[in-house]
Amino acid sequence: MPLWAPRGQTPLVRVVAQRDKTNFYGTLDLRTGTETVTETTKMDAEHTAVHLQQILATYPERPILLLWDRAPWHYGPAIRDILAANPRLELMYFPTATPDLNPQEHVWKAARSEISHNHNEHRLRTLAADFKQYLLDHTFMSPLLDSFGFNAVCPMFM
């Protein structure tokens, strides 16, 4: 890639030893299309447990069936502790290597397409805030429940 600089001056290129990064946990309510979002510095069982606590607080009186992929941070003592303390929270895992079944993957795709792809923002904090706000401000309807006939059989849950 060519680099332009005034003749006789050595160009200075700023190099950052480590890329800035942030992570998001997201959970899609399949009935309403709303998103529960947690921003975090790391993806591990302890941070996943924090997100699970947020889900439990968002839906304090309901049983929760959480459909999960098999990410490594979805396992561990912190997850087992949350499940033991909250019997109304049940997990069901997607089959291995089936991201197309996971409605949350479609949410990530929409948010990345709208916010983080082809942008001019140079500050990660601003970009992360915009990403989170997009998730909170939009609904993401998924046909997953309809594809299994859930809404026809269980309309009282709508």
Low-confidence stretches: 152-158
Number of domains: 1
**What would CATH call the architecture?**
2-Layer Sandwich
The fraction of residues assigned to DSSP E strands is 5-15%
Question: What is the CATH C-level name?
Answer: Alpha Beta
- Sheet having the most strands: 2 strands, antiparallel
**Sheet with the most strands: spatial strand order:** 1-2
Intertermini distance: 55 Å
Structural class of the secondary structure composition? alpha+beta
> Count of helices?
6
Mean pLDDT across all residues, rounded? 87
Q: Could you tell me the CATH topology label.
A: Nucleotidyltransferase, domain 5
Note the run of SSEs as H and E: EEHEHEHHHH
What name goes with the CATH superfamily?
Ribonuclease H-like superfamily/Ribonuclease H
Radius of gyration: 20 Å
E-strand count? 4
